[in-house]
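quick one before i forget lol
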Amino acid sequence: YRLVKINKIQDENDFDWLKQARFYWRPSASDDVSSDGATVVSVTDVDFNYQYEYLGAKERLVITPLTDKCYITLAQALGMYFGGAPAGPAGTGKTE
């Protein structure tokens, strides 16, 4: 809501909107639990079926531009059937 209010987002294809984790109910989709529909998580142009494992970011997690880039990069890698291995010094938030 804040991004729309400050006019940073003009339409649904703006990158500032696409980079957000968005949750949609798609009645035409199905998952392992139900064929009546599925919750889809979208990050940039990658869609994942919600599989009931996401617990959210920890309360102590500080959201920075680097955190956003990590989420986007890992989502893109998973969308291409790759993985990711964040690396860096101890105590810099890699496990969050």
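fyi The longest helix spans residues 65-79.
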